[in-house]
Every structure is written in structure tokens, then in C-alpha cells.
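Review this chain:
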Amino acid sequence: MEQIKKPRGTLDILPEQTAAWQYIEKIIREKCIRYGFGEIRFPTFEATELFSRGVGDTTDVVQKEMYTFRDRDDRSLSLRPEGTACVVRSMLENGLYAGAMPLKLYYLTNFFRYEKPQAGRSREFFQFGTEMFGSDSPAADATVISLAYSVFRELGLKDVKLHINSVGCPNCRPAYREALVNYLGGYTDKLCPTCLERLNKNPLRVLDCKSPICSEIASRAPKTTDHLCDDCRNHLDALTALLDEAGIPYVIDSGIVRGLDYYTGTVFEFIDERIGAQSTVCGGGRYDGLVAQLGGPQMSGVGFGMGITRLIACLEQEGLLKTVDTTPDIYLAPAEKTVYGKVFALCEALRQMGVKAETDLCSRSIKAQMKYADKIHARYTAVIGGTEAESGIVTVKNMATGDRAETGLTAEAIADAIK
């Protein structure tokens, strides 16, 4: 019978890998608590309309990348492709917007997009995300940026660089859009088919194209920062002043526009060029109109998404991945069936004391048990039979040196013997 394999673009995260994930998640959760963010969890699938209205009909996410299906009641549902729209929906549905502001939330979960699998990009991917609602202040932008920067610093990453831009607001973006369309209109014979389609629907997306030709054209395009209104300019200046005061380095990068329609004003990315084409490890910005767009009150928002697999790639690049030693401290080998219950209880008692203890679960012979103990790299072994059970004395063997020592047949005595 043919073996069933995982769907293309999904991940198996194996035991030898999960230690690194748990280490990263622990740091993220600790940082979020310090910054006053509470964890939110939301459904794996939502109404498709949430993403078409929230993320935007013109985005690649909605047009090409969502996993959409109809349930038995003929409702259109989609696996979550991103987190911000989900959080806004949950906030509105559960009345969180009526509480104290700003509301600060974070999540650590998986998302789904039908993309071409490649290094740093998969169809199932994992993100750490934050969302802050109810503050128009540049200090809100600076806070979420500082949280991301703090995570990178705690992990020891020194080469992840912050790039900032402003894409303007509904007041100043029309003038920029006109200037951009006029400029790009002179290159319609060179733009890729996707960008030709974007030119009329969402020309800012052309600036985000990865095609070498489109990227070269975009590098000479009008800059968003040259077309900002006074409010957007003052907001960006105030944000960079706060980052300067906090000692968070950054560069103003007019090429940062982000790929989702809901962004307004501040946009930013943390980039590590050393991990290849998918070098953006974290990206986010402001979305001051999204809550109202999804049926809520007029309320500002700002946040980011940080890719966990790309974060791990950065850590691997710098040799910073943490490992957890799961090697057993001791293997207890029952020599006879009559003592198995005693050995099992002893193993359990050692575990409760913090000792990594193992015993036989497969009815192996003593010889086979010793081979197994060696294979799992147990630091110590102890063979327990009727004689040991009767005398209350057991011999503990150091597997690395071959040294042996007698000790009492209690969890306390064995724990002391192998310290």
C-alpha cells in the first residue's frame, strides 16, 4: 500500500526541532507580558468575507492564495491567511473595544496560503503577531516596533535591520497614487503581467514586486515620503524621534509598502539579507481604517507579524539555535517480571524529583535493554532484580566511564548517586 505523505508546503516539526521552537515561544510570551500584551486565540477558519473586506479584494492573498471551501450549509469559509482581520473580528464580536484603551493583543499560531513553496515560504506557516487598538500616538507604533526589536535582541540577533516608511493616509495618498501611476505608465511595455494588473487596481503593490525588472523600475519611482500631508509627515518624524531616544536603529526605506490593502501611515519591516530572498522576518504597520471597515467604530490600529520559520533561519545563520538536552539521566532495567511494578514506581518517583528516568516498555531481555539504554545515550543504568529488591541495594553504572557504585534502592538515594 502506498505511503501517505504530508501535503506539499506543510511542515513536520520533529522532536529534535521543537526545543528551538519552545525556546523562541517562551521568550516571545515573556516579552509580551512585559509590554502588557494579552494572548488571543481565534478560529482556524473564518467567513471568506472577513478577508475579502479586511485584507482587500485586490491583494494576491485574496485573489490567489486563500484556501476557500463551502461547508454543508453552503457558507463560504476560508482557512485564516493572516491574523489582523481575525483579531479585529474577535474584538468586535466579543465587545473588547468597549474596554480600557489601548487594547494590546498577541498571538502565536499557524496560517495558510496557497503559495509556491520555497526557502522561507510554505503553505502552512507560523507567526507571532501583535495588534494594538485605540491609540493614534506615534508612541503606539514605537511600542510594537520596540517589542519586536526586544525579541530579536533577547535571541542574540544583531543583523536584523529595521526599515521604516509611511504610505500616507486617505488625504495624501491620492496625490501619490496619481504621481506613481503617471510614472509607471511609461513602463507598461516592461512591467510583468501581474504588475500591469496592479497598475489600475493597487499601484503601490508594484513597488513590492520581486521581479528584477519591476524592482529596477520601482527603485526610481516617486517616493511616498515626498507626498505626505503634514499630519503623516509629523507622525513619521515623531516616531523616528522616539526610536532615536530609545536607541533603536532604523533606515527610512521608500520601498517598504507591505502587501495588504489595510495599511495606512507607518509601515515597517525587519530584514535579514543573509537568509536569502525571503529576507523579511517581521513586517507590520498602521491600519487606522480597518476596524470601521469591518463594521466597528472608527478606531486606530497598529501591529506586526513575525515569521517563526524565518526567525529560526536567522538563528541558524548565526549559530544561535538553542537545544534542550533530552538525554535520560538513568535507565532502570527490570531483570524479572516480578519486580517490574517496583521499578516502574521507582522510575515515576525519580521523574517527580526532576530526574529524566526511563525503564523498559517493550518486555526486552536484559541484553536488549542494555543495547537500548546505549542507543538512547542514558548517562547511567541500574539493573534491578529480585536480589536488589530484597536487599534494598542497587548498583548504578556510569555509561561513559564504566564506573559502578552501590546505593540504596530508593529514588532519593539513586538521585544522589547520579548527581
Observations:
- The radius of gyration is 28 Å.
- The chain has two domains: 15-172+228-317, 330-417.
- The domain at 330-417 is CATH 3.40.50.800 (Rossmann fold).
